Amino acid sequence: xxxxxxxxxxxxxxxxxxxxxxxxxxxxxxxxxxxxxxxxxxxxxxxxxxxxxxxxxxxxxxxxxx
Length: 66
Known about the structure:
The protein is mostly helical. Helices cover 74% and strands 0% of the residues.
């Protein structure tokens, strides 16, 4: 999975890549919920929420370390 190294490229402190990724995940999830239905997508929705929280935590840790 290539998500783990995503935060390391932007040393300049830009959060745009993370915001774009989060936005894309939200849009795709909403679109799929409309198309397929919530129950079919629930596991993916929970996984996305967990992954996003982990990414945010790692980003906060990065800021604290600097």
